[in-house]
C-alpha cells in the first residue's frame, strides 16, 4: 500500500482469543423463503442446516440469523436487483460494499477508463472497415440501462475512430412511463444527426419493444430473442420505416400496442434496403449494464455452438458486453467495464497477520472462493501461508444429471485440511443449490440440497474434533424458490396450466450460522445490525480469528457478553 502510515497489522480483539480453526462454508444459491413444495431446501432432508437453525446450544447462543444478499447490500443499484455469485463473494471477502453495475459504468465513462481496457481495444479493431452496432434499452429508467450512458458512449467511440455506427433500440415503458419512447428516440436521433454533421455515419438501424424483442430472460421465450436477431443481424422485420421516430409513433397506433410490446422494425434506405444489418467484420456492444435481460442475446452473439433458434447466419464479429453478464459462464468473454478494483480484502489482511488459509471448491465456483473473494485478484497473497485446491467439475452434462456434484469431495478436502491442523481458516463453496437450481429441475435440486447438507455435516464434525469454530452462510438465493410468482406471491401457470419454473437467483436473504466448541461463551449476534448484509461477514470472521476489523469495514454481526 502506498499511503503513508498504513499498516496491515490488525488490533487484537479485546475479548476473543486467537488460534481457533475456522471453517468458512458458503452454500451457493441457498436463500431463506417460506416453506412450500417449490422450496427445495425445505423439501430436502437437511438435518445439519436444520439443527443450526433450530437448536440453541451451550456453545452458541443465538447463532442463526439472516443477512441481505441482493440490491444495495452487495453494491447493485436497486432492491430489485438479484444478487449473484460474483458480487456476493466480492462482498463476503471485501468487508465493504463496492459499486457494481450502473455505478461502475458511470465511473468508467467519467474517467475515460472504459476506453483503456482490453474490451474497447478489441472492438476498436473493427472501426476502420466495419460498423459498430450498439444494442440495448433506450430509457432513462436506470434499471437496465441509461440514455445518458449511451450518449456518452456514442460521443466517446466517435472521438476514438468509430466511423460508422448503428444503434438498435429497445423501447421501455416498464421502468418509465409508457409513451416516453417517442421522446427518447427523438433525443437519440438529434444526437446521431450531430454526429453525422461531424462526418460519422450514425443512425438507428432497428427497434422493438423490450418485452417482445430481444430482452427475454431466464430462457423463458427464445422467440423474443429471435425477433431481435432477425431485425438486428439479418435486417428483417415485418415493419419497415425510413425513420425510427416515425416507426415508434406509427407502431404505437396499433391497437393493444405499447412501448413494452412494440413489434420489431427495421430502418430502410430509399431503395428499401435495411441500413444496418450486422455482418462479418462488424463490432457489437450490448450497452445494458444489468445482466438478466441480455444474457440470452449475448449467448446468440457469442456462441458458435447454439441451438435455441435458427440464426440463419452467424457473422464473424467482435462482440463485447458493457459488463461481463455471467461470471460463471464467462459471458461475454469481452466487456468494456471491468469488475471493481477492491483492495485490502479480509483475505489479504488475515494472511498478513499470519492466518494460514485453505480454500477449495469445484471448477464452477473455485474462482468465487478465491478470485472474487480476494477482490477480483488471481493467485495467492502469500503461497507460503495459503493453499487453493480446485476439484474438476463434471463436464459434458447438465448439473441435474449428477446433482450431488463434487460436494462430498470438497467436504473431504476441507475435513482433511481441518484435521491436519495446518490451517487457521478453511474456506469452501458448495455449488449444488445454485448450479442445479439453474437447471429448473426441482427433483434434482432437492437431491442437490441434501448433498450440500451432508457436506456441511462432514466439515462441522471435523471442527468439533479440533475444537474449532464454524461460519456457514450463502452468497445469494436460488434453490429456496423454484417457481415464478405473481405480485400476490402465487405460482404462475403457463397456457397449459403447468407451473412456470424459475431458474434464476432470488431476492431472498441468506442465513449465517456460527458455532462450534471453539466459540467463546457469550458470543451472540448483535441486535443493532438488523439490516446486515454479506459485507458484514468479513469483520465477523476477523473477530472470530481474534482480531478487530479495520475501521472502514462494515460492522461485525457479533458481540461478546461478559456473563
Automatic annotation (TrEMBL):
Domain Metalloenzyme: start-end pairs: 20-548
Known cofactor(s): Mn(2+)
Name of the top EC class for this enzyme: isomerase
Keyword Magnesium: no
A GO MF term: manganese ion binding
Catalytic residues (UniProt): 85 (phosphoserine intermediate)
Swiss-Prot/TrEMBL catalytic activity: (2R)-2-phosphoglycerate = (2R)-3-phosphoglycerate
Binding residues for Mn(2+) 1: 434, 438, 505
Gene3D superfamilies for this protein: Alkaline Phosphatase, subunit A, BPG-independent phosphoglycerate mutase, domain B
Domain BPG-independent PGAM N-terminal stretches: 105-326
GO biological process: glucose catabolic process; glycolytic process; response to blue light; response to carbon dioxide; stomatal movement
Quaternary state and interactors: Monomer.
Name of the protein in question: phosphoglycerate mutase (2,3-diphosphoglycerate-independent)
Species for this entry: Dorcoceras hygrometricum
Amino acid at each position: 500500500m502506498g499511503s503513508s502510515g498504513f499498516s496491515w497489522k490488525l488490533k487484537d480483539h479485546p475479548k476473543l482469543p486467537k488460534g481457533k480453526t475456522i471453517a468458512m462454508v458458503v452454500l451457493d444459491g441457498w436463500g431463506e423463503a417460506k416453506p412450500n413444495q417449490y422450496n427445495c431446501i425445505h423439501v430436502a432432508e437437511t438435518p445439519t442446516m436444520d439443527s443450526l437453525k433450530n437448536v440453541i446450544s451451550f456453545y452458541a447462543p443465538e447463532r442463526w440469523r439472516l443477512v441481505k444478499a441482493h440490491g444495495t447490500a452487495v453494491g447493485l443499484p436497486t432492491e430489485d436487483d438479484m444478487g449473484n455469485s460474483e458480487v456476493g463473494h466480492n462482498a463476503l471477502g471485501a468487508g465493504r460494499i463496492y459499486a457494481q453495475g450502473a455505478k461502475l459504468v458511470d465511473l468508467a465513462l467519467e474517467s475515460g477508463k472504459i476506453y483503456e481496457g482490453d474490451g474497447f481495444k478489441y472492438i476498436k479493431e473493427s472501426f476502420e472497415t466495419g460498423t459498430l452496432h450498439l444494442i440495448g434499452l433506450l430509457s432513462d429508467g436506470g434499471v437496465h440501462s441509461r440514455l445518458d450512458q449511451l450518449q456518452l458512449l456514442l460521443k466517446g467511440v466517435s472521438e476514438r475512430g468509430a466511423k460508422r455506427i448503428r444503434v438498435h433500440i429497445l423501447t421501455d415503458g416498464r421502468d418509465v412511463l409508457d409513451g416516453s419512447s417517442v421522446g427518447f428516440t427523438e433525443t437519440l436521433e438529434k444526437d446521431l444527426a450531430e454526429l453525422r454533421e461531424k462526418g460519422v455515419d450514425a443512425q438507428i438501424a432497428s427497434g422493438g419493444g423490450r418485452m417482445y424483442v430481444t430482452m427475454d430472460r431466464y430462457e423463458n421465450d427464445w422467440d423474443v430473442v429471435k425477433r431481435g436477431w432477425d431485425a438486428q443481424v439479418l435486417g428483417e422485420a415485418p415493419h419497415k420505416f425510413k425513420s425510427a421516430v416515425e416507426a415508434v409513433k406509427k407502431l404505437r397506433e396499433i391497437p393493444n400496442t405499447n412501448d413494452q410490446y412494440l413489434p420489431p422494425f427495421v430502418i430502410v434506405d430509399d431503395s428499401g434496403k435495411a441500413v444496418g444489418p450486422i455482418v462479418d467484420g462488424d463490432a457489437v456492444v450490448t450497452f445494458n449494464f444489468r445482466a438478466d435481460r441480455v444474457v440470452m442475446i449475448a449467448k446468440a452473439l457469442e456462441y458458435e455452438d447454439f441451438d435455441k433458434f435458427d440464426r440463419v447466419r452467424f457473422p464473424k464479429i467482435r462482440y463485447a458486453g458493457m459488463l461481463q453478464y455471467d461470471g460463471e459462464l464467462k459471458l461475454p468473454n469481452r466487456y468494456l467495464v471491468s469488475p471493481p478494483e477492491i483492495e485490502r480484502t479480509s483475505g489479504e489482511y488475515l494472511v498478513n497477520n499470519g492466518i494460514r488459509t485453505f480454500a477449495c471448491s469445484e471448477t464452477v465456483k473455485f474462482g468465487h472462493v478465491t478470485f472474487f473473494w480476494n477482490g477480483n485478484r488471481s493467485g495467492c497473497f502469500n503461497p507460503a501461508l495459503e493453499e487453493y485446491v480446485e476439484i474438476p467439475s463434471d463436464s459434458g452434462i447438465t448439473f441435474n444429471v449428477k446433482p450431488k456434484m463434487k460436494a462430498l469431495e470438497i467436504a473431504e478436502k476441507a475435513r482433511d485440511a481441518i484435521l491436519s491442523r495446518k490451517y487457521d481458516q478453511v474456506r469452501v463453496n458448495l455449488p449444488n443449490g445454485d448450479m442445479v437450481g439453474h437447471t429448473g429441475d426441482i427433483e434434482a435440486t432437492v437431491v442437490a440440497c441434501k448433498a450440500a447438507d451432508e457436506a456441511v455435516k462432514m466439515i462441522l464434525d471435523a471442527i468439533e474434533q479440533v475444537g474449532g469454530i464454524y461460519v456457514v452462510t450463502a452468497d445469494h438465493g436460488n434453490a429456496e424458490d423454484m417457481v415464478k410468482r405473481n405480485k400476490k406471491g402465487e405460482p404462475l401457470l403457463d397456457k397449459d396450466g403447468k407451473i412456470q419454473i424459475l431458474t434464476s437467483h432470488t431476492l431472498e436473504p441468506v442465513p449465517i450460522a456460527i458455532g462450534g466448541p471453539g466459540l467463546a461463551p457469550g458470543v451472540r449476534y448483535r441486535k443493532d445490525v438488523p439490516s446486515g448484509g454479506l459485507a458484514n461477514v468479513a469483520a465477523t470472521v476477523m473477530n472470530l480469528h481474534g482480531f478487530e476489523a479495520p475501521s472502514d469495514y462494515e460492522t461485525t454481526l457479533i458481540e461478546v457478553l461478559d456473563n
